[in-house]
Fold:
Amino acid sequence: MKIFSGLNDVRLTQEICKVLTNELKKFSSFGINEEEEITTGKLQVDKFSDGEILPLFKESVRDEDVFFVNTTNSSDSIMETLLVIDAAKRAGCKSFTLIAPFQGYSRQDKTDHLRSSIGSKMMADILETVGMSRIITIDLHASSIQGFYNVPVIHLNGNKVFIDYIKSLKLENLCIVAPDQGAVKRASDFCKAFPESSFAMINKKRIKPNEIHSMELVGDVMGKNVIIVDDMADTLGTMKKAAELVMSMGARSVRAVATHGILSGKAFENLETSMFEELIVSDSIPQTIHPKLRVASCAKLIGKTIWALTQKVSIHELNAI
Structure:
């Protein structure tokens, strides 16, 4: 097994290696050598002046199980991933596992309009054609996207990343809120970690991407500490309005949890002027510092999953999902 990092995820990959080296040594039944240290492999990614990408493995990967960590949240990172897969396969690797904490184009899982593309299906086809053997990802926008792949998909539950932090806040009268119908299952699963919490949802009508027409709250948030749970936070325009809605209905405080902090456009401006106490995201996408932004690491979740796969044991057995 060898682990390599894309340009976006150097820090996350280093944290994953620490999990594999330090924390999982406690499982002595796996026969881990106490002196063994798992480190990030040597991969050089050059760019020409016109932006063309050229990856080059600086160590042998022949007959190795290669794990490559790279969030595919931009055209450059997608192209980088494809070229790295191609380089690894040409170098004779035994298998190639893509670890995409955030898989780009996952919002394009169906055709909502005539003559539109299905971006997530196209991504699956391209990755498989180039030579990907398996993908590990967290909180796809729609779980049905797994059906687009003809290779194994390890779809991890991002809620695990945030539960310890939310518990550390020791909030009373907790209410978990789904910001739309698509987030109901995710928010309901989040409730299972907080048996005393209540549940509510927001029904919204959207007229076009990143813009909504109306919102209404279904449930009671009076006097509650509200946590809005979703899979991604993009411009935060909708989340900002959701926070205003629950506060106008008598909530004591409001926070948001989103696995993927895309945070594009006016996201930081909206966060600054919002009623949120804080926005908690994972490091599936590299983040910048902001007073209202908290980042929880998904390294432990991914690290345990990798170890379970390499040792051929149940992922559930290591509490990875």
